[in-house]
Each structure stands twice: as structure tokens, then as C-alpha cells.
Amino acid sequence: MKPKLFIIALLLLLLVAYSCKHPDKANQVQQQDTLQPRQAWALVVHGGAGNLREDVLDSALAKQYRQSLTEALRVGGKILQDGGTAVDVVETVIRIMEDNPLFNAGKGAVFSHDGKNELDASIMDGSTMQAGAVAGVTDIKNPISAARAVMMNSPHVMLSGAGASQFAREQGLEMVPPGYFHTDRRWNELQELLKKENHGTVGCVALDKQGNLAAGTSTGGMANKKYNRIGDSPVIGAGTYANNATCAISCTGHGEYFIRYAVAHDISALMEYKELPLQEAAELVVMDKLVKAGGEGGVIGVDRMGNITMTFNTPGMFRAFATAAGREGVFVFSEK
Ligand code: ASP
Q1: How far apart are CA 114 and CA 221, in angstroms?
Q2: Residue nearest to atom 9 of ligand 1 (CA)
Q3: Do residues 308 and 300 touch, judged by C-beta distance below 8 A?
Q4: Which residues of the chain carry a pLDDT beneath 50?
Q5: Contact of 95 with 144, CB cutoff 8 Å
Q6: CA separation (Å) from 137 to 11, 108, 134, 161?
Q7: Do the beta carbons of residue 285 and residue 265 sit within 8 Å?
Q8: Which atom of ligand 1 is nearest to the CA of 256?
Q9: For the chain, what is the radius of gyration of the CA atoms?
Q10: Which of 45, 119, 186, 199 to mutate for ligand 1's pocket (most ligand atoms within 8 Å of CB)?
Q11: CB within 8 A of 256, min separation 6: which ones?
């Protein structure tokens, strides 16, 4: 063997021996920027998870959902492409979905047992670990903006009910009479299927060009809810979480389970402490822990490299993603 070849072979042998002895190190290296170029930006949205099967959801309605998701995605993608911040995108995209009566958030929210619309929303900035939320509000047109105002302009994280409304008014946000949220579709739904599941929450997670992550979620909660019930969506760590060191997550599903299993934070913690990749962490929580517990739903997530996840244990989830590299997808059922 020529001396040059011999040296190369020796070096390769040493490298293999080193990574066998230090598997963690080898694993870490794989997750690093050198081997996997970071996406300049990435965006994922959801419009709720549930019993979404082709034989259940009318195809014309499925088309409307797809169009609405695409619309929200386009607006968000453009802001990120132009250098906008992850937090701005999350708020803007969720506002669009709140104004769309197709979704169970803002206008189009489901009714409570008492025939009211009580809305929950939260937002988190992964670059500062700041967060804001409103719960059980009845007259704020865009709860996600109120959540952001709580994050930016108050010393608190979560405001509820009348106090949240007073704060939103003081912040100059648009207020509406509670009747604004009434849609015949949701009202009839309540009358007809008081006991049936009803998902349609919205959420958005984003990685911006500065490398910052943000997450937000907004909902009318579970149809037929009683006693001022509050779900996971406004609970930081349950329905929403963002940390620049790990990921941004927004959840949808049976909120009681997502609160008890601290789903959004659990995914982040698995990445932080066990160094699991985002997809593996999401699958462990959603497809294993939640399934065993009986908690139905799903999550969307993005990590600091721009890897995304859209993981759900229900038949379907309204979902869409876009990345700087031009990859894009809009889905409703179990299709990949
Ligand atoms: N997670 C929401 C709640 O429990 C509902 C949903 O996502 O559909 O309030």
C-alpha cells in the first residue's frame, strides 16, 4: 500500500473507532448545522384534528379548508420571506384563521353548553421565553392579538374573562358584541350533536430568518363545554410552547389530556434532555403517551433547523407547511 493511502486508511479507522466509542457525540454532530443546512425559514399551520375521513367530510368543504389553509400559509410565507419575525407571522396567520368562520377560533368558534362562545388563545416567543394568553373571552374579535398584548404589555402571562376584556379594550384592540361569533353552522351543530366531538382549533408555528421560533394557538374550545371550562390552548406548556433551543409547538385535540401530559413542553423537554429529533419527540408523545392515555389530537412543530412535524393520532388534521426551500404541502386526511 502507498504511504499516502495508508495514512488515509488509518485516519478513517481512527474516526470510526472514535464515533463508536462516543455514540452521543456522533449523534450530536448529526444534528448540527454543518451536516444539515438550516432552512432560512419554515412555517406550519393547523386547523384542528378530529374524525376527518374522506367518507365523513364533504369534499366541497374539504376543498374550502384546503384553500383557507393555503391562503393563510401564503400570507405567512411572504412575511417570513421578507424577513418578518416569527411572532408577527404567528399572530398574522392566526388572525386570518380567526376571521374565517370555517375554523373553531374567533368567528366560527363552537358554542358552550349555555349557547355562548368562549374563546382561548396563547402565543409564545421562543427567543425571549415570553408568553401571553387569554382564556374564556367573549368579546375580543381576535383573541390571539389579545394574547400577544398580554405578552408584550402586561406583567402577566394569562388573563381571563372580564378582566381580559378590560385589558384588551385598554390596549385599543377591536371589541365585538358576543353575537359576532355566532354562526348558524356552529349553532345547528350544537343543537344536533351536543355530545359529539368537535375540533377545529387553529395554530401556527414559525422559524424566521433570524433563527427565532414562535408558536400560537387559538380556539373556541370543545363544543358543549360547561362551567367556564378552559382547555389546553391558552395554557403555556400544554397547548403552546416555543423555545429557541428546541422547538415551537402548537397542539389541537382533547385539551384535558394535553394539559395533564404537558404535551407541548414534553416534546421540547425530550429534545432538550434526551436530544431526540423533533419528529421522534412528537411521535413519542402523540403516538405513544397520548394514545395509551386515550388523548386524541395532534401537534404541529418546527425546530431551529427548520425541520417540521405534523403528527396526529386522529384520522385527520387540517394542516399545511411551507419552507424557504420552496417545499409546501396542504393536507386534511391521513395523506402524506
Ligand atoms: N384543544 C382544544 C381544547 O381542548 C380543542 C381543539 O383543539 O379542538 O379546548
Answers
A1: 14
A2: 221
A3: yes
A4: 16, 18-35, 194-195
A5: yes
A6: 64, 14, 7, 5
A7: no
A8: 4
A9: 21
A10: 199
A11: 231, 232, 295
Query: What's the CA-to-centroid distance between 40 and ligand 1, angstroms?
Result: 31
pLDDT digits (tens, 9 = 90+) for 153-196: 999 999 999 999 999 999 999 999 999 998 888 878 666 654 45
Nearest-atom number in ligand 1 for the CA of 220 is 9
- Collapsed DSSP state (helix, strand, coil) of residue 37: coil
The identity of residue 315, as a single letter, is P
Q: How many angstroms separate the alpha carbon of residue 48 from the centre of ligand 1?
A: 8
The catalytic residues are 201
Are 117 and 222 in contact, with CB atoms under 8 Å apart?
no
As given in the structure block, the three cell numbers for residue 25 are 457525540
Largest distance between two CA atoms of the chain? 85
- The CATH architecture to which 41-331 belongs is 4-Layer Sandwich (3.60)
E strand spans, the chain: 42-50, 119-125, 130-137, 158-160, 202-207, 213-219, 240-242, 247-253, 297-303, 308-312, 316-323, 328-331
Which residue out of 102, 219, 261, 296 has the highest number of ligand 1 atoms within 8 Å of its CB and is therefore the one to mutate? 219
Residues forming beta bridges with residue 240, ordered by sequence position: 236, 250
Q: Provide the pLDDT for residue 14.
A: 58
| Distance from residue 199's CA to the centre of ligand 1 (Å) | 6
How far, CA to CA in Å, does 243 sit from each of 141, 160, 305, 331?
Answer: 28, 24, 13, 26
Q: Which atom from ligand 1 is nearest to the alpha carbon of 200?
A: 8
Q: How far apart are CA 177 and CA 291, in angstroms?
A: 39
- pTM, whole model, 2 decimals? 0.88
